[in-house]
Amino acid sequence: MNAQAQRLFVAMLFGSLMCLAGCSTSTRLVSEWSNPGYAAPPFRRILVGAGGGESAVRRNLEDEFVAQLQAAGLEAAPSYRYIPDEQTVTEDALKQAAKQAGADAAIFVRALGVEPKVEYRPGYYYPYTSFGLFGPRFGASWYGLYGPSVYQYNVYSSESTLYDVARGEVVWTGTVRTYDPDNVNAAIRNYVQIVLKALEDKQILRVRQNR
Fold first, then answer.
1. Tens digit of pLDDT for each residue in 8-45?
2. Tell me, which fold does domain 3-20+43-201 have in CATH?
3. What is the pTM of this model?
4. 3 state SS of 115
5. Would you list the domain boundaries of the chain?
6. 3-state secondary structure at position 10
7. What is the rounded (10 degree) CA torsion for 42, 38, 58, 139?
8. Strand partners, 118
């Protein structure tokens, strides 16, 4: 995977809307599905994997999932302990690694796509340019001199899926829509919080009573 593709993968998975001229920060769960016929005891151990991208970003994402799951009283492990960085993390590879790790569940994160956006605003003078994290191709800019202003940004979609490895079933899947990243680490934390909150709200992941 070349450098441009790696950067795009980072942005597609992790992002927060850059706050410019009153715009609010947003990372949202836009759709989700849970298996209506699924019923099983609580998971004992969860393996987390992110498909593709830079190894450092993959490890940070998996570590953040593990940290938040453990804070909720659940046992979890990152896939990089079982799948080397040079090997692509696929759904099948993650399921095999989960069995090796003694995990009965797996969370798999993958990028879906990117949609460029343009917003036009009334004219005023606002000499500001933001290059985001990866330079002008991955950032956004306002420009104008007593004329119309244009705000360009990208909207990224990614998907997280929870599998019951023992039964070979999809338990839950959700699509998260995010924006050009300003701080990758903060975006990762926010992303994981959104996914785990959705799983808790659906009562799919049960936490210890002494949490």
1. 445 445 433 233 223 334 788 999 999 998 888 889 99
2. Rossmann fold (3.40.50)
3. 0.73
4. strand
5. 3-20+43-201
6. helix
7. -120
8. 152
